[in-house]
Structure formats: C-alpha cells, structure tokens
Write a sequence for this structure.
C-alpha cells in the first residue's frame, strides 16, 4: 500500500513541477506544504522524493531543501487522460482527430486511455451514456483518469455524473448538443462567411450539402444569403452522397445547380466524383468545400473555393483547455469557437 501511495505521490510531484513551470535549480515547497496539498503522510512524501532523487529528477540537500534537477522529468508520466471514441477504424475524421489529440497529449507527458463504444447497432445520435463505453464508469469512480475528452456529446444524466465526480471534461468537435466545455466548430460564422464569399461569384442556382445535425444551425443563414427557394441536401454517408449525385444528374442542364456548398469534404469527394463521371467539365457545378487539411484530398471540380479546418490546431485548443482546467483545479474548462478560414489555393501537384 505504501509503495502504491508513493507512486501516486511521485506523479503528483511531477505534475506540480510541470504545472508550476519550475526550472532546474528551483526549490520545492516545504514537505509540510506538500503533505497538505497532496493529502499524503510524511512517510509517503519522503518516499516519493527519495525515489525521484534516485531517478535524477530531484536533489536533496541536507538542512537546505529539495531542488529540481530535471524539470521535464523525462521518463515520468503526468496525468492519465481518457478519450471516448466510436467507429474510428472506418471514419477518416475520427482517425485524424484521435491521432492529433494523442500526439498533443503525449507532448504534455500524459498517459492516454481509450474508451471505445462497442455497440454493434448503427447509431446516428451524438448523445451517449457513460455505460456506452465499457470501463469508463469504473475508471471515473476509481479516479484512474484525471481528465476526459469526448468527441460527441453526453446525455444530461451522464454530464451530471461526471461533474459530481469532479472530473474535468472537454468536448472536441461536437456538432451541436448540450456540451458545456470544449472546442466547437463555429458553423454559423463559417456559413455566413461562405455566403458573403460566394455572392461575389454571382451564383444563380446554388445548393447546400450538410450533415443532418447541422441543418438547423445553417439553414437560415443559407436562405438569407441565397433565397428560401434554394435546395439543401442532408446527408453524411456515402450512400446518401450517391443519391444526392443521382438527383443532381437527373436535373436538366438549365436547372442544375451552378454552385454547391459542401459542409463535409468526404461527402464533397463522393458527390463530385460521381458527377465528374457523367458530366463534361463545363457542366460540372462549381464548389465551395469545407475541407480538413490533414486529409489532403483532391476534387474533380474546376477552381474550388476552400474553407480549411486544421485538425492539429483544433486538437491543440481542446487539449490546452483541459490542461489549464486541471492545473487550475477547475471543472469548467471554458468554450472556444473555431471557424474554418478561407484558402482558395489547392494542394500543389
């Protein structure tokens, strides 16, 4: 039991050194302060300091104090962060955002625990329960994780449970729900900027393709920019993209959309690829595409306009919110709205 407590105290000391941005030669506070702060006894704190001394992290000077030698504490992990995930193996966005989050957490010297939703049934809702992720409830109750990142949204009862357990929680990439803290796509601002940008091209028959979860968020802004008679397609799967493309192909040339705004780059690739097979280049609708830079996809569209989303930047914001909340001892990490920025330059050949 003493050895386990000493390991916990070691982790807390390492976190304290990093959180306080201590440098080589800085002196740790007195052991009495450390005992009260970490709520461990004298023997546990002394054992942790002695082990960190043997690891080359600390130096103990008799009757003087304890000093930092290796502020980076190489070889010592900081906090353990949980990440809830679903269908990452067949979803490019999930794969990229998970990779970006893990890379950023590693930079923060954190351990990572992945909790995967193992329900076999197809699920389109963004709202999840704690028990949807095997092992998550037990890990929270046993304080095995010090922070949690969720890529969708929890139900209100699950949010209340997490808050009751005083676990900092940050949402990364949520498309609209009740999540209180995290980094979220500012789709309303983005669609407004797209509307202003596209109006300079004088579109006659524009259309919009968006995920069902975004429809309420963007429909009014699209209609305000181009009129209530313009078409909005809803879809997020390849099968839905094929149906949308078939509907567009069935239109007479004079009624077919001259511009299409794509709020999802995977849908954009599926639709534009099918249109390009059946239509000559001069009859293909022009495109505005919100793209994820990490995907580096090319589209069979003449001079597309891009609004770029940098998943590495997005993940960095989310991890920073969580790290700051834990360092400050807060449950509310805050909220950041991220909007995609225009970049009309495509990837070079």
């Amino acid at each position: 039991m003493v050895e386990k407590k000493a390991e916990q105290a070691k982790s807390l000391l390492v976190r304290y050194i990093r959180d306080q941005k201590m440098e080589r030669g800085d002196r740790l506070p007195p052991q009495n302060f450390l005992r009260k702060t970490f709520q461990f006894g004298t023997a546990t704190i002394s054992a942790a300091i002695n082990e960190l001394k043997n690891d080359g992290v600390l130096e103990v000077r008799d009757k003087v104090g304890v000093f930092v030698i290796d502020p980076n504490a190489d070889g010592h992990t900081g906090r353990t962060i949980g990440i809830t995930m679903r269908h990452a193996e067949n979803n490019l966005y999930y794969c990229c955002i998970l990779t970006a989050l893990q890379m950023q957490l590693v930079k923060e010297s954190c351990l990572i625990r992945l909790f995967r939703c193992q329900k076999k049934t197809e699920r389109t809702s963004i709202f999840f329960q704690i028990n949807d992720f095997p092992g998550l409830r037990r890990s929270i109750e046993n304080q095995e994780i010090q922070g949690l990142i969720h890529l969708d949204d929890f139900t209100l009862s699950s949010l209340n449970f997490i808050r009751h357990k005083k676990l900092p929680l940050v949402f990364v990439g949520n498309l609209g729900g009740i999540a209180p803290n995290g980094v979220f796509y500012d789709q309303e601002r983005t669609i407004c900027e797209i509307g202003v940008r596209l109006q300079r091209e004088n579109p006659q028959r524009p259309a919009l393709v968006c995920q069902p979860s975004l429809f309420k968020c963007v429909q009014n802004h699209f209609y305000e920019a181009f009129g209530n008679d313009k078409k909005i397609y809803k879809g997020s799967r390849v099968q839905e993209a094929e149906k949308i493309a078939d509907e567009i192909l069935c239109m007479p040339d004079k009624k077919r959309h001259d511009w299409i705004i794509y709020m999802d780059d995977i849908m954009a690739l599926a639709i534009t690829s099918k249109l390009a097979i059946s239509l000559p280049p001069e009859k293909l609708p022009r495109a505005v595409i919100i793209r994820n830079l990490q995907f580096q996809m090319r589209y069979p569209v003449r001079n597309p306009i891009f609004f770029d989303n940098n998943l590495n930047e997005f993940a960095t914001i989310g991890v920073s919110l969580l790290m700051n909340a834990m360092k400050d001892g807060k449950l509310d990490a805050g909220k950041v709205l991220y909007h995609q920025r225009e970049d009309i330059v495509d990837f070079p050949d």
